[in-house]
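Risk mitigation, structural track. In case the binding assays with iron/sulfur cluster fail to produce interpretable data, a predicted complex structure has been prepared as a fallback.
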Amino acid sequence: MSTAQQAGRVLSGMRPTGQLHLGNYHGALRNWVELQYQYPCFFFVADWHALTTGYEDTSKLPEYTQQMVIDWLAAGLNPGVATMFVQSHVPEHAELHLLLSMVTPLSWLERVPTYKDQQAELAEKDLATYGFLGYPLLQSADILLYRPQYVPVGEDQVAHVEITREVARRFNHLFGREAEFEAKAEKAVKELGGRNSSLYRELRRKFQESGDTVALEKARALVQGNSRITVADRDRLLGFLEGTSVAILPEPQVLLTPTPKLPGLDGRKMSKSYANTIGLREEPDSIAKKLKTMQTDPARVRRTDAGDPSKCPVRQLHEVYSDESTRQWVDAGCRSAGIGCLECKKPLIDKIVDDATAMRKRAQEYEDSPELVRNILNEGAEKARDAARETLDDVRRAMHLRGD
Ligand code: TRP
Ligand code: SF4
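Fallback model:
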């Protein structure tokens, strides 16, 4: 029988883009570092995803992967706590992707918002490929393979988790049927024991009659918190809540990453493609030089002109890096022309240089001994494969792809 959703398990991935910048850190990585101490976490390098838009030159992939993982470690991801691995080291991702592709309507993929957007944005590349169309489904396979409860992503990836939920629902509907399911589920309800049985029935009725999702969550918690029932019964009870099948691929939830708006040096969003970034492990001189020339309120031309902090990207960096009293000093000094822009940038330069220096220090041992990174990724891949195989065994069995 299938093992249900892994309570609290977190899964997320990142494309290997080489050295990370402050935007990547505040948009995702910082959050991962916090999550690793709250939940069992799986974090992976989505190298196959990199191929979906960059298949012509793959030569940089090993270096980009290595550099990005060193950034993860430098930022505080702890291999003793979180599982880190590379997608292509776990071929199970490909098998699940293939199997899911058989049941996924083309129209679901065509209507993913990033599909047309990215094709237009990256017009210089030929993205009329099978792989590019299918990449949200590859992401679905990445996720469902680990049966996570949470997928921490930014706003731009929410649609991909949504389609993942739809694919899971469709798969479970097609293949999650078990002979005599209803009878077995009813029996499992009794196993919950007197009060809990009636509470379960009540919550299930509330959800099924009026779509009360609070009731659904309560019922799930009731089932997941019960240690008397078997794993198979727990699955049945979870499946029974929403319908009449077992959830072989449980639906994950988005854990929306709170992302401060991090401007790049030119005031646009910090992004590698705009060449307006500051690296996570950049040298002090280079950080200072970049920040000194960073865009400020364009109306503040001379030192004696008053500025408007709400029109200044430097002020947005203070939002992320400075405390309340510094921000007050900035706002008052800017509006009255009491401080100059270089003065205003000084505390930022200090803080960002400090952070980067700490990260460079932590990265040093991995730069010196690349085999440490290799070992971490090998161990991670083994753990990931163990989890992935469990899911795929259930998937294959449900699809009659093995003899037992
Ligand atoms: N598509 C994601 C991105 O471009 C990366 C990714 C791949 C991912 N597979 C995933 C994120 C699974 C979360 C879960 O950022
Ligand atoms: Fe921006 Fe600071 Fe200059 Fe004001 S003083 S324009 S907030 S850099």
